[in-house]
């Protein structure tokens, strides 16, 4: 593929990884398909060593290794074309890197509103009344 290794995986500022840093493995994709599926090595495994890859700033590298681990790998075998599966694998790598960069907002704990509390208590009273109606009075007999 001409020019494939000249591209970059970009996951925001401080993270621009050359595609040449990705290590590739290929194998036959599973599932039905007859001779083509058995002979063509279209399944793609892309692996990125985040601890030593070029193109990542140090503070970004620490964050990514903390959230994703030292090695990031994806497996794609959706299409019949190895080239298309390679493209999909690069997109998956880029998506995972971008997701790991997003800061999760801290949850602000809240209390149930008055209406919710009243509905819950009303429902409890109705259930208790229904169950008490089912009971037999053993003393009457």
Task: Write up this protein.
This protein has a domain at 4-101: 2-Layer Sandwich (Double Stranded RNA Binding Domain), CATH 3.30.160. The protein contains 4 helices and 5 strands. The chain has helices spanning 34-39, 58-68, 82-101, 114-134; strands spanning 8-10, 16-18, 23-27, 43-49, 71-76. Strands 3-4-5 form a 3-stranded antiparallel β-sheet, covered by helices on one side. β1 and β2 form a beta hairpin. The longest helix is centred in the last third of the chain and has 21 residues, at 114-134. The mean pLDDT is 88.
CATH topology of the domain at 4-101: Double Stranded RNA Binding Domain
Kindly estimate the percentage of residues that lie in beta strands according to DSSP: 15-25%
Name the poorly predicted regions: none
The quaternary structure here is: single chain
Give me the count of strands: 5
Give a quick set of tags describing it.
single chain; 141 residues; alpha+beta; two-stranded antiparallel ribbon; 4 helices; elongated
List the helices and strands and how they pair.
Blueprint: E1 8-10, E2 16-18, E3 23-27, H1 34-39, E4 43-49, H2 58-68, E5 71-76, H3 82-101, H4 114-134
Antiparallel strand pairs: 1-2, 3-4, 4-5
What's this model, at a glance?
The chain contains 4 helices and 5 strands. It is of the alpha+beta class and 141 residues long. It has a domain at 4-101: Double Stranded RNA Binding Domain, CATH 3.30.160.20.
């Amino acid at each position: 593929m001409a020019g494939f290794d000249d591209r970059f995986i970009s996951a925001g500022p401080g993270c621009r990884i050359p595609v040449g840093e990705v290590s590739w493995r290929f194998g036959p994709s599973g599932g039905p398909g007859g001779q083509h599926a058995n002979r063509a090595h279209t399944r793609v495994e892309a692996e990125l060593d985040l601890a030593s890859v070029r193109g990542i700033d140090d503070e970004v590298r620490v964050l990514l290794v903390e959230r994703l681990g030292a090695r990031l790998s994806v497996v794609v075998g959706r299409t019949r074309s190895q080239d298309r599966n390679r493209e999909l694998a690069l997109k998956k790598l880029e998506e995972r890197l971008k997701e790991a960069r997003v800061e999760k907002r801290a949850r602000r704990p809240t209390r149930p509103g008055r209406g919710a509390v009243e509905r819950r208590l009303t429902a409890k009273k109705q259930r208790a009344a229904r169950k008490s109606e089912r009971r037999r009075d053993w003393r009457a007999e």
